[in-house]
Amino acid sequence: MPLPYHQRTHTCGELRAHHAGQEVILAGWVAHHRDHKGMVFVDLRDRYGMTQLRFGDETPRPVLEEARRLRSEWCICIRGVVAHRGEGNVSPRFYTGELPTGEIEVVVQELEVLSESPPPPFEISDYTSANEEIRLEHRYLDLRRPSLQRNFLIRHRVAKTLRDYFDAHGFVELETPFLTKSTPEGARDFLVPSRLHPGKFFALPQSPQLFKQLFMVAGFDRYVQIVRCFRDEDLRADRQPEFTQLDLEMSFVQTDDVIRMAEGAIAAVFAQVLGYDIPRPVPRLSYQEAMDRFGIDRPDTRFGLELQNVSDLAAQTEFAPFRQAVESGGVVKCIVSSDPGGKVLTRKTIDTLAEELRGIGAGGLPYAKVAADDQGAPKLETGIAKHLAPIAADLLHRVGAKPGDVLWFMPGNYTAVSKYLAYLRLRLGQLLNLMPAQQWNFLWVVDFPLLEWDEEEKRWVSVHHPFTSPQDEDLPLLFSDNSQHWGRIRSKAYDLVLNGVELGGGSIRIHRADVQRRVFQLLGIGEEEAQQKFGFLLQALRYGPPPHGGLAFGLDRIVMMLTGASSLRDVIAFPKTQRGTCPLTGAPSTVAEKQLAELFLRTITPGK
Amino acid sequence: MPLPYHQRTHTCGELRAHHAGQEVILAGWVAHHRDHKGMVFVDLRDRYGMTQLRFGDETPRPVLEEARRLRSEWCICIRGVVAHRGEGNVSPRFYTGELPTGEIEVVVQELEVLSESPPPPFEISDYTSANEEIRLEHRYLDLRRPSLQRNFLIRHRVAKTLRDYFDAHGFVELETPFLTKSTPEGARDFLVPSRLHPGKFFALPQSPQLFKQLFMVAGFDRYVQIVRCFRDEDLRADRQPEFTQLDLEMSFVQTDDVIRMAEGAIAAVFAQVLGYDIPRPVPRLSYQEAMDRFGIDRPDTRFGLELQNVSDLAAQTEFAPFRQAVESGGVVKCIVSSDPGGKVLTRKTIDTLAEELRGIGAGGLPYAKVAADDQGAPKLETGIAKHLAPIAADLLHRVGAKPGDVLWFMPGNYTAVSKYLAYLRLRLGQLLNLMPAQQWNFLWVVDFPLLEWDEEEKRWVSVHHPFTSPQDEDLPLLFSDNSQHWGRIRSKAYDLVLNGVELGGGSIRIHRADVQRRVFQLLGIGEEEAQQKFGFLLQALRYGPPPHGGLAFGLDRIVMMLTGASSLRDVIAFPKTQRGTCPLTGAPSTVAEKQLAELFLRTITPGK
Questions:
Q1: Is B384's Cβ below 8 Å from some Cβ in A?
Q2: Distance of CA A282 to CAs A33, A159, A247, B347, Å?
Q3: Is A36 annotated as a binding residue?
Q4: Cα nearest neighbour of B531 on chain A
Q5: Whole-model pTM?
Q6: ipTM strictly over 0.90?
Q7: pLDDT (tens digit per residue) in B193-246
Q8: CATH fold of A303-432, please?
Q9: Is residue B171 a contact partner of residue A555, using CB atoms and an 8 Å limit?
Q10: Which CATH class is domain A151-281+499-511+546-607?
């Protein structure tokens, strides 16, 4: 008589001391099994937890014999009776909360092996040392690991919480097409050949940007979607060719409205998943201030080490790199780091940092250490201290340095100095352990420039996209004929940053035809080109568009932050490798000649 | 001073008599505008409803002048005061419930034109006569129509209700890849060329079938996803190349468990959207009974007109088509339709039906009418009545015909007779008006055959797919060497049918290795072929798979039923035309040579 596995009475995470004496039916996987004094103990695992099974004296002989055959990862069903393990035998992990079933065990009466398994190619454990390729190839086993199960349960909870939140706020989840038109802007599109229209192609969407604006023109007022997006980029460290976005758009709104709504959504998620209340409103920082103070538009504000402008003092020294930087219109900036005892920032570490900086293009890493003079007051020594003598007192006072500090300098043009010091700041943050994992520093970066000068192409380009609205008070700059003003136009764009990671961003869009025309003018996009590139959106924007704006968050990245995962691959069920392949399915793969013939396509061998 | 449109106080569907006297800010679109006795009346529309604006004596002169400029579909914002229209002026549509704001109007004080619009290319109305191509080209205007807005609000509610339901039942929404491997089974794949791996291709998924089974192997226990799927089929009447599926899978279950869960989900949706309680459990019909009684495996059970087998009587006639059918192992079946007064089933209509049946392959449409004899008892006349004389009494008694009925016959082999009579039955149902729109007849069709003989390929093929489990009591047939038995193996597959439309279906999958091997054997799929076609799933099923099963529903079709839409294109925001194109974006389109070069692809001109 087979066991009615479809009538499980409990999951493997459910039984407690008060269930003692109850007859139960459980099903799951053999996580561990051991023979002990003629008995067999099995840890039975499912998505919900782990329960100890005991095959002993009370177990019928043939069942005990069958239990001896059990091996790891066999799928079984049992009927038995819950028993308290007895005081001395309660699992220590029960008391730490790791094993809530650790007080009890199930004394097995009946056993059915539902399916067997060969030994898995790697241990199903969070401590497995198997390489990622093997784990991805057997992803169905990898996904049995409790930490990955947890990641995906959290991912589900995040998506559900977001949907509940936006539904409660009157948003409509609307689906946008996946087979759409290739647009020449942005990243590279994945193409999909059309069989019915030979020689023509669909493209997979990089984002539903254009469609969500159409939804606003259509009057849907509040749109949201959790949606897959695609970018055929060269794969860098932690990128995936397909990724999931939380995408939203609202009509009749200004920046504050979108920001308030988005903050509420993220706060709902953090409260639900971590029980953490994000202090709101989330602080805002202008792009310019972020660049000035942190050298980057997505600063990690969990720690200080801010950039300080010491150009005026630097100009007073004879130190050539400083003088030259200032004289050629650049800057000299400085970071002060504390390293009490000098344990971390050894000579060797400083050399390594300098080497890393040279690797990203810096000329060097001038620094000086702060020691105490006879009176215990700070004084500069080592490094470039001797060059700084004329300004030492002013400098130490200005940057507020104390004995034991290190001063790090960077001379050069503003952009380069920002880049190098932003890098250095993060590295110092890591080395000095200033980035606590459980601290959540949210930050909106606002007031981005609308346009930036592209030195290579010798033209103005959009910092975000050509539909981003300029700020109302900067409209005179936009309509000014003096191109000197154009770089100073600020946009209604905003990015949400968490601990130095950009979670997403968006903008208020242009809804005024005259403003849109002017932006295209400054971008050097003619009528014809605009029609060709953005035809249907421009067409739509003629028909009474409402003022609107929105944003998009990277869902994978949010889940990664919430779970503490170290890679996107730990929060995507079936991810691609860094080479853009799937070791599980073998995708991409060759296809039948017939399939290509139907598409009127021929492949070319590279190099020919 | 521009109006603060982002501080709308109400939507256009919200104001009632009790708001009279309140100052409000509204924003929306000019639906209608008319000058009347020096005043201007505007119907302001948004997603939430319509509100009448009055620009009259109380309106400042310049605002009134500006109001005269307003045209249809301009986007505006106003500030004004709510006023009761007065008893005589309440909209009649207020009393019918069509216009909940019909008691009031807003007396406008301030007006801001947010954006203008040229006259739209078609009237934004549910009564528009514009052709679909034009409407799809300007989909953002088409979507402003109240009926389409409603469809998408319902669609959102359906998806949300399903997600709430499955979340409450412990399902995890897990995302599956879109860039995956092409499989040679099933419909045609859309291919995506890989740039990083020249000559290789991803395929867009036809369904997440394999991945959801992997989730079960991975122990996720209960999976659900609302997910886009893709099929590159030749486009028929109402098909879309991309469509949305509600996809689910459960572990440790049998048929009843999946059916119960799915019924609950559909019931939740119907209760939420229509306030309709589906009587549960939903009736079940075996595949065989459905075929016998309705000639089709997705019968519309809102009406009778069932097929009746009269082969034994037919064999007693001299009517050649009947005798031949029976003698060659076929059947003669009969439908009885009532048409009191004979108003519908005129000679002309009958000729049309016969013509239609010939169009789908039938040889003819033998029929006879039932008249009353002198005693008022039924008797046959017209049509083939004279051939039926010897059996007339038995026949009339058997099928329970009354005067005024028509008897429709079909002789031939079982499959053909089923097909033709199923068609005829539906047509009669339409003609005789037997299919009330607001009646919901749900039905599970179960006990499908596992295998069917493919006469062309001369081999057994799966009715569903090769992972569908046979029924336990039919395992002896499966393992029988007598191939006569194989067609009688019933599977654990089930389809949900609503008013003759298949909403979806699924099955319990095979989790026993020996059963899976045997099924492949009967299908003539060798070890190597199986590995090549289903490699990674077979591999996964080695490692302790749990018993599992699931199903998939077509979400688009469910929404279509709920909204009463007449086409899938009315429930998909940006659908493709029947030629598989998007008139809005122009997709598919040609792409830059550079894009093809990067993919190492060349297009071939058809015909060369």
A1: no
A2: 51, 22, 20, 77
A3: no
A4: A585
A5: 0.95
A6: yes
A7: 999 999 999 999 999 999 999 999 999 999 999 999 999 988 777 789 999 999
A8: Gyrase A; domain 2 (3.30.1360)
A9: no
A10: alpha beta
